[in-house]
Design brief:
By secondary structure, this protein is α/β, with parallel strands linked by helices. It has six helices and six strands. The chain is 32% helix and 12% strand. The strands form two sheets. A four-stranded parallel sheet has the order 3-4-5-6. A two-stranded antiparallel ribbon has the order 1-2. The longest helix has 17 residues. It binds iron/sulfur cluster.
Length: 194
């Protein structure tokens, strides 16, 4: 009797349906593509982000769901979670950050090499959320610069994916030299970072 579910059917994908990554802006034709170095490096970086999850509470559980097979962050080239700041380029802060934890978060950020990006996931990481108390940091942007804020308490995995896609958009479109710009240096100086 035939099995009701079929695996590995090896169905051929028509060549016109093949899902290729978009080429960076520029000139392209049969077998060639021309673009700027900024754009090419940007596409490479955006599709191979290595996240460092800094998850402290309920939002961390939503992040776990985002990593699971249903939402599958791996589809965005970001499945390689790193728990060492020296190898990661996106800091994903999910959860309530107590003031006592703030120096640790800052230290983790400082240990990451440039280029690095930061996503604040959920109301607590963005603003302190419902914990308007003496012990809770009222937003991680009080200690480190943040690139993308994901709202919600908790945010759905779709919102977290949207945050990662916003970082990808930023990475693809920022100049490789942004880190050397006066504006960026001034931003870090505001946080007392050299
Ligand atoms: S934003 Fe809501 S769900 Fe996320 S850590 Fe804070 S209280 Fe928990």
């Amino acid at each position: 009797m035939a099995r009701p579910v079929q695996y590995n059917t090896n169905e051929k994908i028509p060549s016109d349906k093949t899902n290729l990554k978009e080429t960076p802006d520029g000139y392209s034709g049969e077998g060639f593509a021309l673009s700027t170095l900024d754009k090419i490096v940007g596409v490479g970086r955006a599709n191979s982000l290595w996240p460092l999850p800094f998850a402290t509470s309920c939002c961390g559980i939503e992040f776990m769901a985002t990593m699971g097979s249903n939402y599958d962050l791996a589809r965005f080239g970001s499945e390689r979670m790193g728990f060492t700041p020296r190898q990661c380029d996106v800091l994903l802060v999910a959860g309530t950050i107590a003031k006592k934890m703030a120096p640790i978060l800052r230290q983790v950020y400082l240990q990451m090499a440039e280029p690095r990006w930061v996503v604040a996931i959920g109301a607590c990481a963005c603003t302190g959320g419902i914990f308007d108390s003496y012990s809770v940091l009222q937003g991680i942007d009080q200690v480190i610069p943040v690139d993308v804020y994901v709202s919600g308490c908790p945010p759905r995995p779709e919102a977290i994916l949207d945050g990662v896609m916003s970082i990808q958009h930023l990475v693809k479109n920022e100049s490789m030299r942004r880190r050397n710009s006066d504006q960026y240096k001034a931003l870090l100086e505001e946080y007392g970072i050299q």
